[in-house]
Amino acid sequence: QVQLVESGGGLVQAGDSLRLSCAASGRTFSWFTIMAWFRQAPGKEREFVAAISWPGGSTYYADSVKGRFTISRDKAKNTVYLQMNSLKPEDTAVYYCATGEGSLLDVRYENWGQGTQVTISS
Asked: Rounded CA gap, 122 and 102, in Å?
């Protein structure tokens, strides 16, 4: 079992930047570990934002954030980050960190954090 703790959310204005962090602890990561960010806006379903392969660092993004958000990881700190630039009001949501096993496009996310609120004012 992996424990995930998100931080870094807050209230910012449109055009600003935020960096979210997700610290992982517990079971050691495997060669097939994928870590990802999802978000859920009020009244909407949870949606995929970005994912990163833990061992190799390959990344994958939702079209809605491509070019604005960057996912990265620090193996020494067991932490994954989401750098969010040029934020828009439609990015407002609770952001969740998740981890699972598989490949970037085929993974079952089994561990989830508690979420961190990101609010973008216009």
From this structure: 38
Which value, to the nearest 10 degrees, does the dihedral of the CA atoms of residues 105, 89, 79, 48 take? -20
Nearest to 84 by CA among 15, 34, 7, 6: 15
Distance CA 84, CA 17 (A): 5
* Amino acid making up residue 33: T
Q: Which SS3 state, helix, strand or coil, does residue 65 take? A: coil
Residue 35 has pLDDT above 90, yes or no: yes
**DSSP string covering 14-46, please?**
TT--EEEEEEEEESPP-TTEEEEEEEE-TTS--
Measured in degrees and rounded to the nearest 5, phi and psi for residue 81 equal -120, 155
The tens digit of pLDDT for each residue in 20-31 reads: 999 998 876 787
| Sign of CA pseudo-dihedral 107, 17, 114, 5 | positive
